[in-house]
Amino acid sequence: MLSSLFNPDSVAVIGASRKKGKVGNAVLSNLVKDFRGNIYPVNPGEEKIEGLTCYASILDVADEVDLAAVVVPAKVVPPTLEECGRAGVKYVVVISAGFKEAGVEGAKLERRSLEICKEYGIHMVGPNCLGIMDPVAGLNASFAASMAYEGNIAMMSQSGAICTSTLDWAEANGMGFSKFVSLGNKADLGENEFLAEFRDDPSTSVIAAYLEGIKNGSQFIEIARDVSRKKPVVLVKSGRTAAGSRAVSSHTGTLAGSDQAYNAAFDKAGVIRADTLEDMLDYIRAFSTQPIPAGRRIAILTNAGGLGILTADACYYEGLELASLSGETIEGLREFLPDAASFYNPVDVLGDASAKLYGDALEIVLKDPNVDGVILLTSPQAMTDVGSIARIVIQKMENSDKPVLCSFVGGTRVMEGNSILVAGGVPNYIFPERAVASMGALCDYGKRRSITYPLPKPVHSDRKMASALLDEAAAKDKKILGLESFDLLKAYGIPVVDIGKASTVEEAVEESERIGYPVVMKVLSPDISHKTDVGGIRLSLMNKDDIRRAYHTMMSDVGRYMPSARITGVQLQRMIEGGREVIIGMNRDVQFGPLLMFGLGGTYVEILKDVSFRLAPLNEKDAHSMISSIRSYPLLTGVRGEKAYDVDAVADILVRVSRLVEDFPQVLEFEINPLMVLPEGEGCFAMDMRLTLKESN
């Protein structure tokens, strides 16, 4: 789709300059150094730049121009794009800044620029970007200091500064790229279009990205899921905190969604999320050079016991398994390692180990069928020949299909070994924990690319009844619905506890007699969200006297705590005993849609925050994963002889809630709290609910 963007026959630089230090000069100079096609500088005030004929306008270029790099003031960009359209240019990289990141007037300029591009069928990168590179094609249409090394990593970044820092780091570490894109404001082309392009690019094996926001969340998940089955996608998303989100808005005008939604989206899409830029760079070094392991069983090979222990600890926290070496491997190691060595995992070849000893041990360990990958550690003793060790590691890896990540720990004494490993395509990390984290990323991807995503089973529902309930609320301008809307749950087959409503004490007695004791009483008020906080709940009411006493004291307490609250009466419900309270909630994320939440329910959910999140739609597998991922999951499955609760029934309700909130986009927030889960096989019941509707247009 974007082949002419990355591999054009001709490039124009509109705003080219002869003055050193100007962006227009840097872009043109970079093209002159590496580009093999025709280059056309455009500047009405110059006749020649860099020995090339300069044109007053793109319209004066007689030949066809595939790509234009635009480096003119923001206010001049729209008419410049108009001329590009008339000249038949199909791709532009707008490097100029001063658009939506600069405020209201800049946003207007950006909208106008996009309108012109759509009118003429132009695809635009930027504005407010560093530019683009394709080292394979010799294209450097950017103002970076130099061309990236050629490699198999496609990188895109919403920050130009992170682009230049990454390029500089990669040059120092011998890492190369197939494509390099500064996204800027993403007015037209964004992460989704480039993901699709990189998926089909034969020179790309790994995709990396720094993003501050995503334009089309559902499309991103669909594309990234397809891409990640073929190639690993490693991504850093900034703006995780409230402070970070504010910085994002001022930087590129991107609206940052909730971090929980991004985590859920990346998980659903098979994307590897890196917490830091350092993590991302570490991971893509491993992905670009090493095979994907078959499992998570890792062997550690070291010449220092302390490093081995630290690495074993890091493997545990990373969720990696220390491989149990086979008897054949252990006996093979005994044949040549000193008696004081450790023949188990971690394998310690001792501080005076020669390069040959290292190589022989690595060869045997790699052949062990119980080993999926190796982390090789070296501490520089006086007798350690780090250069020879590095060379023999490269040699022994040639015929292996298992990843080996090295950590030569030190400074000046390991520099030679690091240089040799980097040149040989073996990642070396200055500290073992970084090697372990990178091995974890390899293993995670090995699992993610094999995940299937079955569609949810159909949910039988009375959508007509649910729609009527919501339409009635909208007609009455009711934005918050509570227990009075239990029928909405019934419409989707969600079991609810028997309830009744009363506006007087005698009606409360009558309803309680009908429902049966014990009874729970809750205040009904559109102004009260958290009833417990104002004395609006009474439990274990066993008879008429309890009902009368509870009614009067509740009205007194609520009136004292919230004297201005509108009270419409009380709600009575059968008290379910012997169950476990959980919560199911939903918040509609601005980018990704319904974000579902699950956790232990009741009054402590906001304090404990032991919850999990997934994006709709949920299938049965998603629902069970959501339930089992909370820390307190063992409380549902039974611990120390306790009974197990009906987790299957909870999973079924999660799927039904997912369908409900997908069917009705006017529901902004939704909560069942508590959902009372009964012992295994006995089901569960919604005890309370609350939902918020969006404003009517």
TrEMBL record:
Keyword Cytoplasm among UniProt keywords: no
Pfam families listed in its UniProt record: ATP-grasp_5 (PF13549), CoA_binding_2 (PF13380), Ligase_CoA_2 (PF19045), Succ_CoA_lig (PF13607)
Residues of the ATP-grasp domain: 486-522
EC assignment: 6.2.1.13
Catalysis: reaction(s): acetate + ATP + CoA = acetyl-CoA + ADP + phosphate
Keywords for this protein: ATP-binding, Ligase, Nucleotide-binding, Transferase
Molecular functions (GO terms): acetate-CoA ligase (ADP-forming) activity; ATP binding; metal ion binding; transferase activity
Membrane spanning stretches: none
Listed name of the protein: acetate--CoA ligase (ADP-forming)
Organism: Methanohalophilus portucalensis FDF-1
